[in-house]
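WP5 quarterly update. Target: AEC family transporter. Source organism: Filifactor villosus. Length: 310 aa.
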Amino acid sequence: MFVRLAQLLLPVFSIIFIGGFCRYRNYINRDLVKYGNEAIFKVFLPLSLFLSIYRLDNIGKISLLPLCFLMSYTVLIFILGWIYNTRLCRDVQTRSVMIQSYIRPNLLLFGLPIAASYYTDQGYELVILNLLLMVPFVNIMALLCFELGINGRVPLRTIAGNIMKNKIVTGAMAGLVCRLIGLEIPELFLKPVQSLSSVAGPLGLFLIGAGLSFQSVRKEGLCVADSVLWKNFLVPYTAIFIAVLLGLRGQSLFVIAIALLSPVAISSYTYAIVYTNKDKLAAMLVMMTTLVSLGSVSLAFFVLMKYSLI
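Structure tokens (predicted):
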């Protein structure tokens, strides 16, 4: 079992640490990290999601029960996080950044690579579809964190516009439409798409490591510790416990586990820049939850695999 756990997580975390080492040695600079992430979110990931969904078999028969569980649980965490941070008398900007860190996991650059590593010898269409459909939902909830928390309104037009302009959502929806209408795309055109999409996972993990920075951690130490406690332990472990009690097993439980165990999404930093002056805090939350996930993910999967729950 230890060998299986190492095979699952070691490749993912190794790439992250290699990225961190290269940044530490100044082999790459901050601009490369910035523009590399832009290329991932605007080119490589949309192509990867398009291809993943386009090649799903029996898409109409895939259960969306894990997605329903994740959506309901995310709304609950949103409400509890709002109450918790309000009672701590945090300002609206800090509160919004903190709540976003509780509910916005790195599904695409962290969750999907681990899923691909775990299900190397069998289909995992249920995992892919549920994780991909969760992406626009967490984006909407993150947007609500800032619009509702700072501007005091629910901007339906802004939310709709944000979804339409999101290249990742566009790629996923294009793949879904092509799959549902039965459009056959010649393999000649799919091969370059596959070559480009294969870059998304490794490059994304590498840039996660390269983007880690320990500057100003002490200044926001309490908020960082708070976010780590919620995102890496309380939120995922409680959800896994509830899901097990409800009888969820196999790929359904895997979806819930990896979706909530994933660290804070890199894109949360972008929202923090647009809506607040707490972008450094948001960056630290991404960094620390990513580092701590090495232990929290390993522990969770050790237990799940030991008792054959996934």
